[in-house]
Each structure stands twice: as structure tokens, then as C-alpha cells.
Amino acid sequence: MKDNKQLLLSKAEFMLKEAEKLGASQAQATIALVNRNLTRLANSIIDQNVSERHATIRIILYFGQKTGTVESEIFEDSDIKKAVEQAASLAQISPENTDFKSLPTPKEYSSTFDRDSIVSEDTYNTTPEKRSEFAKLAIDIAHEKDNRIAAVAGYVQNISSERAIANSLGIEGYQIRTFGDVQLTIIARDGKEETAGSASDARRDIGDLKVEDVAIIAAEKAVNGFGMKDLKPGEYEVVLEPEAAAGLLFFSTLLGFGARRHQEFLSFLRDRIGEQVFAENLLVWDNPLDKRLVGASLFDDEGVPHQKVELIDNGVVKNLVYDTFTATKDGVESTGNHAKWWGPAEPIARHIIVKEGNASVDEMVSETKKGILVTHFHYMNPVNPTEGVLTALTRDGTWFVENGEVKHPLHTLRFTDAVPRFLKEIDMIGKYPEFLTTPPIGLVPAMKLPSFRFSGSSKE
Questions:
Q1: Cβ atoms within 10 A of the Cβ of 47, count?
Q2: Cis peptide bond prior to 440, omega within 30° of 0
Q3: What DSSP line would sit under 213-266, residue for residue?
Q4: Contact indicator for 213, 138 with CB cutoff of 8 Å
Q5: Residue ranges of domains in the chain, CATH in brackets
Q6: Percent of the residues in the chain that have a pLDDT greater than 70, as a whole number
Q7: Are 218 and 353 in contact (CB under 8 A)?
Q8: 45-63 sheet: strands from edge to edge
Q9: If you ran DSSP here, which 8-state letter would residue 314 be given?
Q10: CA dist 280 to 33, 234, 352, 367, Å?
């Protein structure tokens, strides 16, 4: 498999030279090349095969403490030169950031993290015909499950991405990654009632995708959803399947453990480092170098090497995640967590791993007196970041549990609750999930919580 390492690094070097010509005191150049190939399913047919190739550059220029940034989907040198000039113009009219000291300097990357650890040639070379085989298998398996299955929707895709980062202080990093994933939403109808079930899986090697299992699980959730009833808002025990637990853990780390939010008094964990905030059986860390992860990565979005960062140890808040800017303000070293994702660039834990337990979801249900089983949450958002209050809707499968038995499915519920409250106690933690995910989630098992607040339902 041929990569574009030298080409991307030469483009990054070109950006830095253009920045130097314009008198920039420091500069950082990033260029990414992404190939996305997707087969889409709708109404139980394959309705689309598409391939996209995107080249994106990002240039950051500093003139003292003034900065200008331009990000654009371009690749030709003439266009890149104009982008650098635009960044310089923006820097000249920007206010000084007196907290800025310097971009990062070079550090050694992990020597055990070679290309074969994060790249699959089969994924890179996957054809539309191969993806269509997966799609047809999913459709056939779902319809064989029950005659009430009305439609299968979703996609199968394979992605390869290359990224080069360089700065004027000597950083030069390159990596290539591949992954394939399948996501299915299956609709079932019985008379006037319509239900949905979903499941997904991701793998570095697309040949390892558990397409059949994903189709079976999604179909079972759909056909088990008939007969939905209402539920009064209130506090209930909750059994969170891995996807539901993963969503909560990601937002918990996003709102609580990022150094920027901590410094700006937006974190619900402000001044609580070293304090017992969470359940004693909760251990969480961020480790992009873990080769078990589909999204394992070598360095962050400013070229600083990733490392393992302990976030929660037996319920105790241990560390924040940092990038160069926030680390300088606190007088510490960057943890390699800089992320330009949405909004302002900031340090984010994007490869979250929770220490697994040994309980199954069935065992969690059997230990529930009066509670709710949740597949996953939709449209999760912070309500009060400084208190860690989140809200979201249940989706694609929610059931009422009583005296250790699943009684009946429920209409869509909304939860509104605070992270320090609902994670203060954890009754049970499961094993790592059968299905894998792409970042920001690494490995998060199912959980049973003794108290979780549901604030409304679709049938109130």
C-alpha cells in the first residue's frame, strides 16, 4: 500500500517557508488527506455507493502574540500560498493573546507504535462490491429475523486518513490510519405501531466487522419494542448498555477534565483534583496509544506525542488533560490532548477507557428492582456545565425493568441529571463490549447505576 507521507510533509514544509517569508515568528502547518468510501442502505435496498477524497490544510501563524488561522480544503501550492497570506492578514488585525508563550517543541514519538498497528491494507483497498456484500448480508439477516421487519437503513464504509503536522520549532509528524464501520437502524411495524433498533461496529480491518451480529441485535431491539408504555418522570435504577454508558462518560470527561474548561471556571471538577467524586469502582483513563482501539493514534492535533493519562482512580479525580497552551498556563507539560474538533481548539480526552468489571447486562437486569434498560442516548447536551448537568433522549430501545425482569418497552424518555450525582455510586460494571467504536470512545462497558433522573417522556 502506497502512502503519501513525503508529499504531505513537503506541503507542510512549503507552508512553513511561506510563513517565514511573511515574517511570522512561529507557525504550525497541518495537512490531512482523507479517503471515504461508503455504501448506504435505505428501505432495505442498497441505494448509494460514493467515494470522497478530501485534502484539508490548516495554517496557524504567530507574529509575537498575535495569531491568525486559516483552514481550507485545498491542495495546490498557489492556493496554499494564498491561505498563508490570509492567515498573516488575520494575525495583523487580531488582538494580542498575552497568555501565549510558544508552540510545542519536538518530543520523541512512541517507538512501539508502527504503521502496521493502525493500518489494514484490506480496508484501504476495499471495493464497492465488498461493501455491498456486507450490506446485502445485513438486509437478509434482519428480514429473516422476523416478518415484522419493515426496513433496514444505515451504511457500511471504509476510511483511510493521512495526516502530517509540522511547526517552525522542529515538530514533524506523520501517520496513516484505516478503519471500517457498519451502522444499522432497523424499523419494524406491527399494525399502526412502529419501532426501531440500532447497532454498530467498527474495526481497523473491515474484514473483522461483525455485520451479522449487528443486524441481529438491531432487529431484535426493533421487534422487542412493540407495546410501548408511558413512564412517569422520576428517579430510577438504570442499566446502561455500552453505547449509553460511553456517551455519558465522554461528556463527563469533556465537561470535567479538559484543562481549558478548568482554567476558565467551566469545569464541574474545578478545585476537586485529588477528591473522591465518583464511585470507588470507577477507573477511567485516556490512552490513544492502546492498540486495541480502532482509533489508536500517535500524536495530537499539534504534533505532541500522545500518552496515557489517568483521569479517575477508584473514584478519585487524578489528572486533567492538557495541550501546550493550557499546560504553559499551569506550569506543567502537555499530555498530548490538543484537539481542533468543534468550536475553539482545546484539550479533550478522545480515547476513553473504563476498567471493565465482570457482570453481563442480563445479570444487571436481574439485580434491578425498579429501573430502566437503555440502549443509547440521542442529542446529548450540557444544561449546566459548571455543575455537570447533562440532558439527552433515549433512542432505539428502552425498557422498563421490575423485580429482575424486563416488563415492557417504553416511549422515548428524557434524562436530566448531574454527573457527580449519578456516577457517585455504581452497582455493577460489565465486560468490554462485543462491538467497537471510533473516537472519541475507546472501551466503555455497560453499567448499572442505583439512581438516575428521568425528567420527561414523549407521552407526558
A1: 12
A2: yes
A3: HHHHHHHHHHHTT-S-B---SEEEEEEE-HHHHHHHHHHHHHHHSBHHHHHTT-
A4: no
A5: 5-222 (3.30.2290.10), 227-460 (no CATH)
A6: 100
A7: no
A8: 66-72, 45-63, 26-42, 149-167, 172-190, 193-203
A9: T
A10: 43, 25, 18, 19
Q: State which amino acid sits at residue 222.
A: A
Q: Grid cell 484537539 — which residue?
A: 339
* C-alpha torsion angle, residues 188, 229, 200, 254 (rounded to 10): 150
Count of all residues that appear for the chain in the document = 460
Specify the DSSP element, H or E, that contains 389. Answer: strand 389-402
Task: At 170, give phi and psi (nearest 5°).
Answer: 110, -5
In whole angstroms, how far apart are CA 379 and each of 118, 395, 423?
30, 10, 20
Name the band, by pLDDT with cuts 50, 70 and 90, for residue 460: very low
Express each pLDDT in 426-437 by its tens digit. 999 999 999 999
B/e letters for 371-392, b = 16+ CB within 10 Å, e = fewer, are: bbbbbbbeebebeebeebbbbb
Task: Please report the beta strands in 64-171, taking only residues with DSSP state E, as ranges in sequence order.
Answer: 66-72, 149-167
What phi-psi label fits residue 13: left (phi over 0), alpha (psi between -120 and 50 degrees) or beta? Answer: alpha
Structure-block grid coordinates of residue 255: 465537561
Distance, in Å, from the CA atom of 375 to the CA atom of 359, rounded to the nearest integer, reads 17
pTM of the model: 0.94
> Where does residue 33 rank: exposed (0-12), middle (13-18), buried (19+ CB within 10 A)?
buried
3-state secondary structure of 1: coil
Q: In 257-360, which residue ranges form alpha helices assigned H by DSSP?
A: 259-263, 324-330
Task: Read off φ and ψ for residue 260, nearest 5 degrees.
Answer: -60, -45
Answer whether 218's CB lies under 8 Å from 184's CB. Answer: yes
Q: Report CA torsion sign: 359, 365, 368, 372.
A: positive
- Residue 390's pLDDT band, with cuts at 50, 70 and 90, is very high
Q: Extract the C-alpha cell encoding 445.
A: 462497558
